């Protein structure tokens, strides 16, 4: 017997198969959702509810999946934080918000987010600033600073990290420009 698009069982063309066991249907829905990426327990529960699975059936299936370590919010949160911080450059505040929207409890989310050390967060923020800085070469110092701090704020970095990283990056850019200008002046005087 196959599953319809809504995850419920359907009888074959001859109509000989009995209706599907609700727990089997719920388990199949969860496993299908888990094939694309890890999910929180709340995400799976929402998926089951959308498909019309009764709450007690959903709870039993989710409990069995958790016992089998296929559903683990702490592991999910750690993986989510690591991936989104590394690949998207998100800061702690944004990551905590995403985990909250995915139904991960505050304590579990906080534990996962706290795995990002202050130095790691600063280093990732600096990478983001360094990547954007060349496009801002012609901008006034204050305008570039405002745009860079805004970019970091949208990515979930706290103000202290954002201002410190941007100030350092712009100071280095200004020092490099001053050095280059001094070299040009020296070359003009020699020539």
TrEMBL record:
Pfam families: RecX_HTH1, RecX_HTH2, RecX_HTH3. It comes from Actinomycetospora lemnae. Residues 26-65 form the RecX first three-helical domain. Residues 120-165 form the RecX third three-helical domain. Gene3D superfamilies: Winged helix-like DNA-binding domain superfamily/Winged helix DNA-binding domain. HAMAP family: RecX (MF_01114). Coiled coil: none annotated. Residues 1-24 are annotated as: Disordered. This is Regulatory protein RecX. Belongs to the RecX family. Residues 72-112 form the RecX second three-helical domain. Residues 1-13 have a biased composition (Low complexity). Its main location: cytoplasm. It is found in: Cytoplasm. Modulates RecA activity. Keywords: Cytoplasm.
């Amino acid at each position: 017997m196959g599953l319809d698009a809504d995850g419920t069982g359907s009888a074959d063309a001859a109509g000989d198969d009995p209706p599907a066991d609700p727990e089997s249907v719920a388990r199949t829905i969860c496993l299908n959702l888990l094939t694309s990426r890890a999910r929180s327990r709340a995400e799976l529960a929402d998926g089951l509810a959308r498909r019309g699975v009764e709450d007690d059936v959903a709870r039993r299936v989710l409990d069995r999946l958790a016992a089998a370590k296929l559903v683990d919010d702490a592991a999910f949160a750690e993986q989510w934080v690591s991936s989104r911080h590394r690949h998207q450059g998100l800061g702690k505040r944004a990551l905590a918000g995403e985990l909250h929207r995915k139904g991960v409890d505050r304590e579990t989310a906080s534990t996962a987010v706290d795995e990002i050390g202050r130095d790691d967060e600063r280093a990732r923020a600096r990478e983001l600033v360094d990547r954007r800085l060349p496009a801002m070469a012609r901008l006034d110092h204050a305008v570039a600073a405002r745009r860079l701090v805004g970019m970091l704020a949208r990515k979930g970095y706290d103000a202290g990290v954002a201002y410190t990283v941007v100030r350092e990056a712009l100071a280095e850019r200004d020092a490099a420009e001053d050095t280059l200008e001094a070299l040009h002046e020296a070359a003009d005087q020699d020539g």
